[in-house]
Amino acid sequence: DADVTQTPRNRITKTGKRIMLECSQTKGHDRMYWYRQDPGLGLRLIYYSFDVKDINKGEISDGYSVSRQAQAKFSLSLESAIPNQTALYFCATSDLRDPDGELFFGEGSRLTVL
Amino acid sequence: GESVGLHLPTLSVQEGDNSIINCAYSNSASDYFIWYKQESGKGPQFIIDIRSNMDKRQGQRVTVLLNKTVKHLSLQIAATQPGDSAVYFCAEKVGSSYKLIFGSGTRLLVRP
Questions:
Q1: Which chain B residues are within 8 Å of A103, Cβ to Cβ?
Q2: Structural contact between residues B91 and B99, judged by C-beta atoms closer than 8 angstroms
Q3: How many CB pairs under 8 A join A and B?
Q4: What are the CA-CA distances from residue B90 to residues A63, A76, A79, B49 (Å)?
Q5: DSSP string covering A58-86, please?
Q6: Are B74 and B22 in contact (CB under 8 A)?
């Protein structure tokens, strides 16, 4: 089983719909992240959380919100999806005790907004 | 601004040959660099890293070279295999910052 699990893996939705992408991890890591990947671009950070009570905006947080329901769960929401939010979304974790902060990624959630 | 980029978006090599994937970075303060491999339908996976106090680091069939003078990073894969076909990303980080800056990726295609 994957250490970092994302659901759903694929989703097609319409403009204006609310969408939630969920992430759960069994690595016991405190830190969790949501990244977005677009063709020809590198991964860009949307939000990150260093513990259950900590939520921080990344470089492209507009149009997104997150919830850290538990140490192991970090969900990403699009309140009103728009077509330019069509992308591949990755959840990642890292260990607070690792000074290099190596990231462990889920397998991605492909979102298409029509 | 800070940026990490790649010279070649796609690299095609013959199976058994060596592959070299290049990356340029612009932040001279970056002191930690990572290469990730992303296979189709999967998330990125750590391959190898290097700190700025080193200029070379070797792993199993992979070597990372760092040239701080020209802000250049490369990943060398020896005896490239079909399983090496993937997109490779470089990323950089400054000190204890949580923030990784990713390059746009190079696709490696291995011809049988």
A1: 44, 46, 100
A2: no
A3: 51
A4: 27, 25, 32, 9
A5: -TT-TT-EEEEEETTEEEEEESS--GGG-
A6: yes
* Under 8 Å between Cβ of B91 and B72: no
Among chain A residues, CA nearest to B10: A40
Q: Cis omega (within 30 of 0) on the bond before A8?
A: yes
- Amino acid making up residue A27: K
- Chain A residues in contact with B99 (beta carbon < 8 A): 45
Asked if B46 and A102 come within 8 Å (Cβ–Cβ), the reply is yes
Q: Across the interface, which of B4, B44, B99 has its CB nearest the CB of A105? A: B44
Q: Where are the alpha helices (DSSP H) in B17-93?
A: none
pLDDT in tens, A55-78: 999 999 999 999 999 999 999 999
A92–chain B nearest CA distance, Å: 9
Residues of chain B with confidence (pLDDT) below 50: 1-8
Cβ <8 Å between A43 and B89: yes
Any chain A CB within 8 A of the CB of B42? yes
Long-range contacts, stretch B63-69, CB < 8 angstroms, 24+ apart: B64/B33, B64/B35, B66/B33, B68/B28
B8-22 pLDDT per residue, tens: 489 999 999 999 999
